[in-house]
Model the fold of this input.
Amino acid sequence: MKMSGARMVLECLKREGVDTIFGLPGGAVLPIYDVLYDFEGIRHILVRQEAAAGHAAEGYARTTGRVGVCLVTSGPAATNLVTALQDAMMDSIPIVAFTGQVPTHLIGNDAFQEADNVGITRPCTKHNFLVKDGKDIGPIIREAFHIASTGRPGPVHIDLPKDVLVKEAELIWPERVHLRSYNPTYDGHPGQIKRAAKSIVRAKRPVFYVGGGVISADASVELRELAELTQVPLTQTLMGLGAFPMAHPLSLDMLGMHGSYYGNMAVHHSDCLVAIGARFDDRVTGRVDAFAPNAEIIHIDVDPSSISKNIKVDVPIVGDCKSVLAKLLEAVREELKQDVPAAVRDGRRQWAEQVAQWKRDFPFRYDWDDDVIKPQYVMQEISNLTNGEAYIVTGVGQHQMWAAQYYRFTHPRRWCTSGGLGTMGYGLPTAMGVQAAHPGKLVINIDGDGSFQMNSQEMATCFTENLPVKTVIINNSGHGMVRQWQRIIYKERYSSVDLPGIPDWVKLAEAYGCVGLRVTKPSEVVSAIEKMLSTPAPVILDVCVDKDECVFPMVPAGGANTDMILALPSREVKDKAAKSQTGF
Amino acid sequence: MSTSNGSGGSDPRKHTISVLVENRFGVLSRVAGLFSARGYNIESLSVGETLDPAVSRMTLVVRGDEFVIEQVTKQLHKLIDVIKVSDLTDDSHVEREMVLIRVNAEPQHRAEILRTGDIFRAKVVDVTPISFILEATGDEGKMEALIELLRPMGIQEIVRTGKVAIARGPKSKAARRAEPVKARPRGPDDPRVVGFAD
Done:
């Protein structure tokens, strides 16, 4: 079948099962937008800035498990998209991003709106393609979706020169994708799995450390079964939240820099740490030489390069979390048929008591105030009023950490946050993508006043595309996380962190045709959230919170997880922190 | 507990890594970009076609301890266009590089330069009344020795290729790898061998 390259792109997307694309037109992709004009079966959501198209595709992908798609033009559009690509790269999110390119005969000529797109996106994508011939469009799109969604997922970028989009060519649609150079390992090594099962069953102080890999492999069911069978306590990374219900007695909530005291202590004192789809990020490990110093480390990951990258691993298992956990379950059942030594049973009992005591003695806590709203309280109420069932998206900063600490997640794929890259402005556009994928469902963007302003223009998209995202701005009139670091580590020298009350968020919401609400008193928080939840339109709820509130616990950068501070430190601790700080 | 940048690793040394890649647009920059992005140093790099024109071979010389080299091979393997990565360092193999040397050749030195060249099986590829250009191939040690001997005559310019390397024996390393597990250089429990498609 012969058709223009532009039509071929959309036809291939349809065959890949794509129902929604996020994009913004421009010169080089006009042929696609012309076909899109009366093309049926694909919804196009017009964003206001290209990075938002990328983030929306991320939100779509994270909450559906399918590949998210975005489409933007050449040059500045492609460079705007780079942040979203790197974000998806760091968090292993499967998206396919299309950019326009100047016609092939002009490439390299410094033509209007030209940039070396594939050169720029090479380090921030799993793979990228420059299409030079229309007949390659089908096979390349096929490969792109395959690469994005298999192995360790990630973003794939396809650069489309305008003349390739205009010219007619034969559509080639390979039934199967075979790449001789790309064969991700899905099944773990049976010997290693057996070894891991033995270690888990024989360990006195085992802990599971669960990351986003469990979410992307849809392995929550297997994980829960394994945890309940072995009764091993379980802590989740920022990316892993939702993989295991937070209310479960075995849950130790999040670990890491702003993780729970009990999660970090359990990992530190563990003698057998099982990392499942997690990558020992520096925000999790703190000082690596002091991380889980006495633990045998078992690491399950689909990406071999994650293993022994930051921390030397004793039992590496390369494979898909779902398949490996299923096999590990079998192996553990087998192992449990044998007698467990009494010393191990005693050890496990003491461990369970110890962990329970940490949990009891050092929960997440904050000081209540009758007059000023504490941000943690807002998170608790959002969690209560939605039963932990809403789709939660965040920006980056203090509010993100509070949401991670206090929202009681019950299901996987309901949580979107920028973990690896820490992209401020991630919240609103990602929430749009989530809402587009789940019409009629409740999508809440918990954002900060600083973070929100980096993509607030997308309120227009929410309004015009009927995406009733609920944005809660935890408004502390500044860059709270930076302020917190300046307070604790930089001797209260507050530098460029205040954003005093500008703009008026209620008026801004109204200017975009949306609903604006504001709450300033703790006693009104619940009714304000209820009002927001029952409003069918996009809402901004401006919650004016205590600007001096800090996120605790906190492991100062460069510190070990046991150096965690639980409240504002004394002057001498601050001085010590200032001396030892090794960079933000 | 040792870490990748801690003291647990072996001493850094040179590794010769042979990489089979799809002969495609951009593949060299993918490999080069990986090294710069991760802060590894390439000491030398050479690229050429293989028997299959769709496949190129890159021979990389990288310095690093065992953790760095493990990451280098894993990261190379992660590139979609990379078909196979082999570290030849600890296997029996032949390494060669070529050097072209423009050396001053005053009358009193001409005979000695030629004699030295003969010892190293170097060819004279250009002659002027006051200079020679010598072409020599060999491993790195031989090239260094030749250069040191010629240095007193006054070397004007040196042009060296990257290193190329091939495993010794009747079969290619890839063919040997395809044989049963016992042919693998390391046991299956070794973390460095799990997870690779080969």
